[in-house]
Amino acid sequence: MLKSLLRSSIGSATLSLLLAGIMGLLVGLRRWQIEGRSALQARMKSQPQIIIFWHEHLFVMSPLLPKNCSALQSPHPDGKVLAGASRLFGLRPIWGSSNRQAASGLRQLVGEIKSGRSVVITPDGPRGPARTLSMGPISLSQLTGAPITLAVWSAPRLWRAKSWDKMRFPKPFGTANLIYSEPIMLEKTRDRKKLEAQRKSIEKQLNKLMLDSDATSRG
């Protein structure tokens, strides 16, 4: 029955509304302490940003992200439901993924940045491996000159999905933390070894920021 709903335009829209309601509720039932948002919003006014976070952080990010961003979304039926929910929070979907249809998605993201919009990517999605950065954000930054901003959120009490990414959901009440990093500017290069070094560096920095944030949240 769920598959039938996902493939129906009415069913997909209904599920998107329901999903958006759950996202908004989970965010609204927490007191969020957000670090770096004002600086990020100021940067976005002068230069588009590439905002990245791991797939496990995805579920509640749409209500928390700055408005008027474009997000890379999976074209699969469940991805379209997520895109519909995210659109209600001001995110424009760009169809593609870090794995399949990567070239098409990358071209569209380049166009979004050149039009002045910041973009959002989960660089280990849609199927993993978890916490392993694809080359997508590196290629996008090289092509556009846009800086990369890392994002992580944490809370002392979480639910975890039994999925490849162990997706996290904040339990109601109490505090939660969201951190946006300082911008990361990449040196322009076409050297494959240097590009791989940049990929590993961003992956390491995002993992460290997440682990530090989780440790702080646990107290």
- What's the pLDDT, averaged over the residues? 90
Derived structural class: alpha/beta
Radius of gyration: 17 Å
CATH architecture field: 3-Layer(aba) Sandwich
In total, the number of strands is 9
Which strand order do you get reading across the main beta sheet? 1-9-6-2-5-3-4
Indicate the proportion of strand residues. 15-25%
Amount of helix: 40-55%
CATH class identity: Alpha Beta
What is the CATH fold-level name?
Glycerol-3-phosphate (1)-acyltransferase
Ends apart, CA distance between termini: 43 Å
Number of helices: 7
Order of helices and strands: HHEHEEHEHEHEEEEH
Main sheet, how many strands, which sense, barrel? 7 strands, mixed
Number of domains: 1
Coarse morphology: globular
Care to give the gist of this entry?
The protein is an alpha/beta fold and 219 residues long. The chain has helices spanning 2-7, 9-28, 37-46, 77-87, 102-114, 136-144, 192-218, and strands at 31-35, 50-52, 69-73, 92-95, 118-121, 148-154, 158-160, 168-170, 175-180.
Description:
This protein is α/β, with parallel strands linked by helices and 219 residues long. Helix content is 44%, strand content 18%. α5 (102-114) runs parallel beside α6. The N and C termini lie far apart (43 Å).
Key features of this structure:
219 residues, Glycerol-3-phosphate (1)-acyltransferase
Write the layout of secondary structure elements.
Elements: H1 2-7, H2 9-28, E1 31-35, H3 37-46, E2 50-52, E3 69-73, H4 77-87, E4 92-95, H5 102-114, E5 118-121, H6 136-144, E6 148-154, E7 158-160, E8 168-170, E9 175-180, H7 192-218
Parallel strand pairs: 1-9, 2-5, 2-6, 3-4, 3-5
Antiparallel strand pairs: 6-9, 7-8
